[in-house]
Design brief:
FAD/NAD(P)-binding domain, 19 strands, 306 residues, binds flavin-adenine dinucleotide
Length: 306
């Protein structure tokens, strides 16, 4: 089997951009995705901060547009789960759903997935009121009561999205100050009858036999606990990197994200990382795409030398 110049793992914005740049550089490249192209963009109602779309763009639409950019380019599309990586540059072998895929370099763009809230009964109630994706599940809660947990942009964006669907949205954040954009907070605060904001509060228990019927919220400042009737709970409390298939010697930070230099080179020669999987502060579509371009260029330069 001929070895690819580059195997890009994950078809979110980082992976799509990396594959595009590599193909345009004349490298033989395959883009491997376990699900559908788009990554977390498919879980995003609308993006208001992607340059070129001042009116905003729906997440799935941006995903479609990015994926379409690969049409006509020599990018081999592989569907499957990358399960393991063996060897060293320029003789890596990735295992994709049990099949070996030889490659000279690997671009790790597998992003991150949601962290659970970590309260009892959460797993049991997933799909029965507990969700991590408002775009996917919001419609089930039309005209009903929902809570959103989190204090960053994702939580606030999705609370705004749900405010157009649900009867009432309760936004619960464990701190007093929100991390996300002030603009989102102002919009949420401007809907007092529709959006309730509980600061310095944590969800401590979920209630309901077959479906979620309520949550217990504790005010961390006063210690006061109360039970609130609730039909849906949307959790946005951060994300964890998708790195299980990568060798242990690849340097990670204390939260498991991959450490790179500014050129997206990891601690293992020939392996590059881009997007949310990297150890960095700003995890957005635009930064993922930028990382993808940088990683592709670095891989191209690496291939010229080996
Ligand atoms: C609710 C929500 C709202 C958001 N809102 C915004 C916003 O308004 N603006 C903004 O800029 N950003 C937003 N973001 C963040 C943005 O979506 C991410 O920063 C961006 O998608 C990261 O891109 P990525 O390519 O690094 O990874 P991802 O988008 O996570 O893509 C990774 C891909 O890798 C695939 N994959 C994982 N493991 C494997 C494997 N082993 N084998 C094969 N494939 C694999 C996954 O299926 C996925 O398709 C939001 C995120 C969420 C969850």
């Amino acid at each position: 089997m001929t070895s690819l110049d580059a195997l890009v793992v994950g078809a979110g914005p980082a992976g799509i951009t990396a594959a595009m740049y590599l193909a345009r550089s004349g490298c033989s490249v395959a883009l491997c995705e376990r699900l559908t192209s788009g990554g977390q963009m498919l879980m995003t109602a609308a993006l208001e901060n992607y340059p070129g779309f001042p009116e905003g763009i729906k997440g799935y639409e941006l995903a479609d547009r990015m994926a379409a950019h690969l049409d006509g380019l020599a990018v081999e599309r592989l569907t499957g789960d990358v399960q393991a990586l063996a060897g060293k540059a320029p003789d890596f072998t990735a295992t994709v759903d049990g099949r070996p895929v030889p490659c000279r370099t690997l671009l790790v763009c597998t992003g991150a997935k949601h962290r659970p809230l970590g309260v009892p009964d959460e797993e049991r109630l997933v799909g029965r009121g507990v969700s991590y994706c408002a775009v996917c599940d919001g419609n089930f809660f039309r005209g009903r009561r929902v809570a959103v947990v989190g204090g960053g942009n994702s939580a606030m964006e999705e609370a705004l999205y749900l405010s157009k669907i649900a009867a009432e949205v309760t936004l619960i954040h464990r701190r007093d100050e929100f991390r996300g954009a002030k603009l989102y907070l102002q919009r949420l605060e401007s809907m007092p009858g529709k959006v309730v904001i509980l600061r310095s509060s944590v969800v401590t228990a979920l209630h309901g036999e077959s479906d979620l019927t309520g949550i217990t919220v504790r005010n961390v400042a006063t210690g006061e606990e109360r039970q609130i009737p609730m039909d849906g709970l949307f959790v946005y409390v951060g994300s964890a990197p998708e790195t299980a298939y990568l060798p242990p010697e690849l340097e990670r930070d204390d939260r498991g994200f991959i450490v790179t230099d500014t050129e997206m080179r990891t601690s293992v020669p020939g392996i590059f990382a881009a997007g949310d999987i990297r150890s960095k502060n700003c995890r957005q579509v635009i930064t993922a795409a930028g990382d993808g371009a940088t990683a592709a260029h670095a891989a191209f330069l690496f291939l010229e030398r080996v």
